[in-house]
Amino acid sequence: MADAYILGIESSCDETAAAVVRSGEQVVSNVVFSQIATHQPYGGVVPELASREHLRAIVPVVRKALADAGHTYQSVDAVAVTQGPGLAGALLVGISYAKALAFALDKPLIAVNHLEGHIHAVLLEERRKGNHELRFPLLALVVSGGHTHLYLAKRQDDCWSYQNVGHTRDDAAGEAFDKVAKLLGLGYPGGPIVDKLSTRGDPYAVRFPASQLKHRDRNDRGNAQTYDGPRFDFSYSGIKTAVLRYVETHNLQGSIAERRKALSAISQPKLEDYLLHCDKQTLDLVASFQRAMVEDLAGKTLAAARAYDIETLFITGGVAANQELHQQFENDAAKEGLSVYFPSRPLSTDNAAMIAAAAYPKFLARDYAAMDFSAEAGMVLK
Ligand code: KG4
Ligand code: ZN
Question: Using a 6 Å cutoff on CB, does residue 146 contact ligand 1?
């Protein structure tokens, strides 16, 4: 089979991204336009603003991805785009543009599930390193700002299929990082700064109770009913409330308001700026929060790995960039004799290379999308 160059397009949340990937294994170009600056004043992604920014960015981002790759619109073999899950208006921008391109150029159009993209980011990374051997059964933890899922991933010939064996019943793990950071006046997005500050605090200073799955599963979109093996669900709204209680009972509101004001006056605060405005109590709280998140994510994933006799773990999505999480999984996997793989940092947060990589098996199978397919905000991965 000759090489196939796939143009990937991703616009499910707050990154407008385009990339060219050769045969699911070489990132030829990877352009990501982040909207963080637009959403920062609001402490989270504002859907209407996200759609507007995607509209502005999509054409230059795709042009740059082609130019960086030394390709033209005509020279790519297929166009792949994220169908869902994500923000409906944001997804539609990428989908409409991809459809127009595929139609005008008479190229195959491939629709990709964003979560499958995150899983293929790991495969892309491993193929890039020349590792073509994978041991099965394989369990993937997809952990980001919008998702916390555990999937058993299967491969038959070149086709992949997935079974959900765990998901969050309320907040996603990245959402908890973002909400706690916002609560403590640390700005948005919270994950990267919590990651850095945690190394400066005592992770055992504050004990958070283990998460309990008491409430109804508000994120169940039919996954749980269709699969009756053991489940390993997550819940992160409780820890966010526990941090809020700590703030209230320790009267931290005043110092948080001062920190928020001081940091918002700095256009791009550096680690030293954050440290200057964080006392020991806050650093300990941040470190303890991260410790609790890492223990819960790793604990449940390892329990699922044991239950399903797993040989290989994939840890992927924005939160997979977390240093402590990385370390914890490396240690746990070594103890249990598991292989564990992560994407590189640029491939762990949202990007289009992972979409082009996930499209490659579909390209080989000629699994093309019809021109009338639409965005699926709550799309399930199967
Ligand atoms: O995969 P992603 O870019 O977008 C979604 O599909 O949601 O993930 C973004 C999320 C945000 O919640 C961000 O705070 C979190 O990933 N994140 C991190 C780190 N870097 C990004 N969380 C913890 N530690 C990090 N180093
Ligand atoms: Zn994502």
Answer: yes
